[in-house]
Amino acid sequence: MRVQIRYGVDLEDIPKEVAALMTKAQNILYATDRAFLECTTELTKSEGEVNFFNVQGCVVEAREALAKADMLLSDSFAIL
């Protein structure tokens, strides 16, 4: 569940606040790389050994992480 939090900061602190949000987004994107690696590793197995349920799970994980990063970037953009 997503909620909005409102608070005030000094104008000169805005870059620091936005940088913190963007750092969170960046960390999420780095973690997403693991999900992509798991998917591609699973898909390159020999025929009959590929577990498509695992691949679907990796895809879902990656999409959820990308959505979180996108929300953080959207918040950053709105603040700027």
Which features characterize this protein?
2 helices, single chain, 80 residues, 0% strand
Q: What this model shows, in words?
A:
The protein is mostly helical and 80 residues long. The chain contains two helices and no strands. It has helices at 14-43, 52-79. Helix 1 (14-43) runs antiparallel to helix 2.
Walk me through the topology:
Blueprint: H1 14-43, H2 52-79
Helix pairs in contact: 1-2
Compact summary:
With 80 residues, the chain is mainly α. It has helices at residues 14-43, 52-79. Helix 1 runs antiparallel to helix 2 (52-79).
Helix coverage percent? over 70%
Q: Can you count the beta strands?
A: 0
Strand residue percentage: under 5%
Q: Which whole number gives the mean pLDDT?
A: 90
Oligomeric nature of the chains: single chain
pLDDT below 50 for ≥5 consecutive residues: which ranges?
none
Q: SSE order, as H and E?
A: HH
Radius of gyration: 17 Å
* Overall outline: elongated
